């Protein structure tokens, strides 16, 4: 069974450690805010100028003026801070963000990421992705393993415009958890009911499989 978006976000939340400052990218990464484990104190940052994001609001909590970088309504936690995007990017470029969680269109086996543009299609801009991948201490990607036509999005080399080079550390897809190591994608965990052969067939880059691969706990 392939993981849905919420299950991908829940698995990534286990990578968040106490005391981290974490940036959540647009798309699946924003859902991680809903799954921060109890007892873990982290500060979620949004590049439009916010520290201290909480989970998504319920219908009675929605404030149209309180949004993240993807223009989704959010909540804030006690002690949160709102400031200019210039200050926010100073924080990012100053390497004060411990972990960045991003979506991606493609990732290469050496850790390159392409996540901001498809040639020939309208694009609003690269957002904060290029600053984040250049400055974050750790980058985890949340993505679908394959495109709608079934082609792999985990490649030997990216075919789309590159956002960052050799920066991705770990990837969580609907099929697997993988780590970027010398030589390719190292398979760490697989989605329930998904076989190693299924993952091999869906991975165009070099897949490294060592020993028994456990299932992701969902």
Give a written overview of the molecule.
This protein is of the alpha/beta class. It is 14% helix and 24% strand. The protein is built from 4 helices and 13 strands. The strands form 2 sheets. A 10-stranded mixed sheet has the order 4-3-2-1-5-8-10-11-12-13, with helices on both faces. Strands 7-6-9 form a 3-stranded mixed sheet, with no helix packed on it. The longest helix is centred in the first third of the chain and has 9 residues, at 5-13. The chain is globular. The relative contact order is 0.16. The model has no long low-confidence stretch (mean pLDDT 94).
Number of discrete helical segments = 4
- Helices and strands: which structural class? alpha/beta
Q: Radius of gyration from the CA trace? A: 17 Å
Mean pLDDT: 94
What portion of residues belong to β-strands?
15-25%
Number of strands: 13
Helical percent range? Answer: 10-25%
Coarse morphology = globular
Element order: H for helix, E for strand: HEEEEHEEEHEEEEEHE
Taking the sheet with the most strands, its summary is: 10 strands, mixed
Can you list the strand order of the major beta sheet?
Answer: 4-3-2-1-5-8-10-11-12-13
Which ranges are low-confidence, i.e. pLDDT below 50, for 5 or more consecutive residues?
Answer: none
Distance between the termini: 11 Å
């Amino acid at each position: 069974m392939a993981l849905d978006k919420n299950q991908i976000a829940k698995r990534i939340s286990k990578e968040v450690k106490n005391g981290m400052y974490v940036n959540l990218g647009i798309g699946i990464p924003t859902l991680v805010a809903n799954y921060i484990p109890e007892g873990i104190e982290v500060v979620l940052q949004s590049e439009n100028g916010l520290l201290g994001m909480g989970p998504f609001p319920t219908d009675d909590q929605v404030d149209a003026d309180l949004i993240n970088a993807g223009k989704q309504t959010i909540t804030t936690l006690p002690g949160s801070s709102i400031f200019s995007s210039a200050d926010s990017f100073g924080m990012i470029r100053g390497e004060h963000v411990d972990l960045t969680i991003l979506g991606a269109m493609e990732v290469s086996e050496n850790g390159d990421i392409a996540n901001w543009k498809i040639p020939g299609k309208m694009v609003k801009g690269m957002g904060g992705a290029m600053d984040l991948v250049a400055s974050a201490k750790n980058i985890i990607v949340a993505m679908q393993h394959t495109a709608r036509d079934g082609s792999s999005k985990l490649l030997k080399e990216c075919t789309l415009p590159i956002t960052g080079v050799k920066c991705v550390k770990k990837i969580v897809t609907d099929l697997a958890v993988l780590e970027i190591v010398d030589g390719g994608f190292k398979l760490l965990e697989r989605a329930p009911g998904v076989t190693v052969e299924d993952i091999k067939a869906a991975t165009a880059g070099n897949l490294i499989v060592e020993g028994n691969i456990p299932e992701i706990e969902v």
